[in-house]
Design goal:
The chain is built from four helices and 17 strands. The chain is mainly beta and 353 residues long. A hairpin with a 7-residue loop joins strand 15 and strand 16.
């Protein structure tokens, strides 16, 4: 995730990097090493202390670079894919390492990040309230098909669910959210409007591990098989005791080419097609016409892998306590309406929409 820092709105806490700062071989590989000659063997489900993994070539990403343009899926994953990328700037080395590449859809995978101070004075590392020192996010480079052209309230509902802000845009590609392990099943989450700074003494390191659930975005089912890009956003930071005039300029970004295997099969509906199936139900469309979308309401598109069903509906925040979700249950293969959706929101099980 990216950290948005607004001057004047930050509460700053200071933490000194401790015993976890011992050097390990995993972030000492010389930058600029070539891609691995062969795919790495399957990694263990628990992050290792240090892997000694050879680095693949990974160029830093300029802050002004446009997002990647999604492209068609290829049939077969590349023979060799990098699992790690590293960048050095201002005497700071940032590294991220995937548990596996290709990533297997439907299966949790971790990414391990390190921030090492190579200089002779302290580095202040500034991040969000969840202590995520390097935010990691992935984006599928395979388009979701847009599905049926809807109109009116049905179009507004579909666009809001698919993050289509201009009606001529295509649905946003599947995202891969890497979060703290405790938040894997927490839906969307926030880290408060506070900034936390850690002091990294010379030669010391901050290590963090984040996890991907194996599913697209937040409870959007399996992502498509094919290429993806993994981005690490590292910052903000400064060296010495004087905070820079523009802290937002002190950041680094890394990218890794990735691949997703065992993704959504061709016999199962994509998220836009699931929404279209729900919008074919006259009673649901009639209910939508009574709703002021975007005003005290959440549009719901959740896949339940246990029940193998999609929940599509609207949750008004203030009509009942707890709020209730109203809509339909959609079969993930046929698109048939399995029944009505009318249940209370469960904050612990559902997380935030």
């Amino acid at each position: 995730m990216r950290v948005n820092v607004v001057a004047g709105l930050l509460v700053i806490a200071v933490i000194v990097a401790g015993c976890d700062a011992l050097a390990g071989p995993s972030d000492r590989t010389a930058p600029g090493s070539g891609p691995m000659a062969s795919p790495m063997p399957a990694a263990s489900p628990t992050p290792p202390a240090a892997s000694g993994l050879p680095l693949a070539t990974a160029s830093p990403v300029a802050a002004s670079s446009p997002p990647p343009t999604p492209s068609a899926s290829l049939a077969v994953a590349p023979v060799s894919l990098p699992r790690a990328a590293m960048m050095e700037k201002d005497g700071v080395r940032v590294r991220m390492e995937l548990q596996r590449n290709p990533l297997r859809a439907g299966e949790p995978s971790w990414v391990r990040t390190t921030v090492r101070n190579l200089g002779t004075d302290d580095v202040t590392w500034f991040h969000d309230g969840c202590a995520i020192s390097v935010g990691v996010h992935g984006t599928s480079l395979v388009d979701w098909p847009p599905g049926i052209d809807q109109t009116g309230q049905a179009l507004s509902f579909k666009n809001r669910l698919l993050n289509v802000y201009v009606t001529t845009d295509r649905p946003r590609p599947a995202g891969l959210n890497f979060v703290p392990k405790s938040m894997l099943a927490a839906g969307s989450y926030g880290c408060a409007d506070i900034g936390i700074s850690e002091t990294i003494p010379p030669g010391k390191v901050i290590r963090r591990t984040l996890w991907w659930s194996g599913y697209a975005d937040v409870r959007r089912g399996l992502p498509p098989t094919g290429s993806a890009i993994i981005t690490g956003s590292a910052g903000f930071y400064w060296r010495g005791h004087k905070e820079p005039d523009r802290i937002i300029d002190h950041r680094m970004e890394l990218e890794l080419d990735a691949w997703i295997i065992e993704g959504l099969q061709g016999d199962r509906l994509t998220p836009p097609e699931v929404i279209d199936a729900a919008l074919a139900d006259p009673s649901f469309v009639a209910y939508l016409e009574t709703q002021d979308l975007g005003n005290g309401r959440e549009e719901i598109l959740w896949y339940d892998p246990g029940a193998d069903v999609w929940e599509v509906g609207v949750m008004p925040w203030y009509e009942t306590k707890p709020p209730r979700i109203h809509g339909v249950l959609v079969d993930p293969v046929t698109g048939a309406i399995r029944g009505p959706l009318d249940r209370p929101w469960n904050e612990e099980a559902d997380g935030y929409p």
